[in-house]
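Module 6 notes. Inverse folding takes a fixed backbone as the condition and produces residue identities as the prediction. Think of it as a translation problem where the source language is geometry and the target language is the twenty amino acids. Below is one complete input and output pair. Work through it position by position during the lab.
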């Protein structure tokens, strides 16, 4: 998988961590050999290693490092990819807290533009909040869902922004701040971002986007092409209870069986 111009992500799947390491080393040696043939080299010391697992599985107590061209790389607890912060168990707390701290730092700088009720007009404060702070605060919400703890901290910060936008008192009830400031609640905006992402995947031809190729067979598509076995190696080791959910029905709560993120994408398109 290529990111930007010179960043690569190599993903493999096997029943064991050691099997993953052997596969990664073999694929890297192949890529490096092909690169040397055309005069391309890689910055090996920048390599990061992470093993994905389901939330129910624990990390092994000791893990052998991966060796690439004489460099040893220990297992990373957090890996950044295109601004997304991933953990082995795909917990979203670290990602959203990172962007929350960045939004708080920018907000503390923006507030210096004027004192409350003077200087910058309120409609300009609204533009700053909607065009600058909200995208930073909710970055990655199209793919990741904030848990209750992260959402609580994000709401607390967003209420401060809404009070600054409207110049309301601190005692103003939070239930009316969104209406007064004409700024959406965080939970509603995150749901909107996920549905927008699902719509983009659903409307993309399957031959151009592997994600749309993994949608259920019954899902209406712009193309009849379906890659039923596309990226099947990434599902190795899934529990036998996994079955693709029908996109025409809502996701059961609590879930009756395990499902992949692409199944959730199909469900998000149902209200649209």
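Target side of the pair, the amino acids:
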């Amino acid at each position: 998988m290529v990111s930007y111009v010179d960043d690569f992500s190599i993903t493999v799947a096997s029943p064991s961590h050691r099997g993953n390491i052997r596969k990664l080393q073999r694929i890297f040696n192949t890529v490096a050999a092909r690169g040397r043939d055309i005069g391309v080299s890689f910055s090996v010391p920048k390599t990061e290693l992470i093993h994905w697992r389901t939330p129910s599985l624990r990390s092994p107590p000791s893990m052998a490092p991966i060796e690439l061209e004489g460099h040893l790389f220990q297992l990373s607890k957090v890996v950044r990819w295109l601004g997304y912060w991933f953990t082995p168990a795909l917990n979203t707390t670290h990602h959203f807290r990172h962007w929350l701290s960045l939004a708080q730092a920018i907000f503390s700088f923006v507030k210096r533009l004027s004192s409350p009720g003077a200087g910058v007009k309120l409609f300009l404060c609204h533009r700053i909040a909607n065009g600058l702070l909200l995208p930073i605060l909710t970055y990655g919400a199209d793919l990741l869902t904030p848990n209750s703890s992260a959402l609580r901290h994000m709401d607390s910060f967003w209420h401060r922004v809404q009070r600054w936008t409207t110049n309301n008192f601190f005692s103003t009830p939070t239930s009316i701040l969104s209406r007064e400031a004409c700024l959406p609640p965080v939970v509603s905006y995150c749901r909107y971002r996920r549905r927008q992402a699902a719509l983009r995947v659903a409307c993309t031809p399957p031959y151009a986007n592997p994600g749309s190729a993994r949608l259920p067979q019954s899902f209406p598509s712009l193309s009849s092409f379906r890659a039923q076995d596309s990226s099947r190696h990434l599902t190795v080791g899934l529990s036998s209870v996994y079955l693709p959910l029908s996109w025409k029905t809502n996701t059961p709560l609590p879930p009756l069986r395990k499902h992949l993120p692409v199944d959730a994408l199909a469900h998000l398109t149902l209200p649209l």
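Reference fact for the lab report: The radius of gyration is 22 Å.
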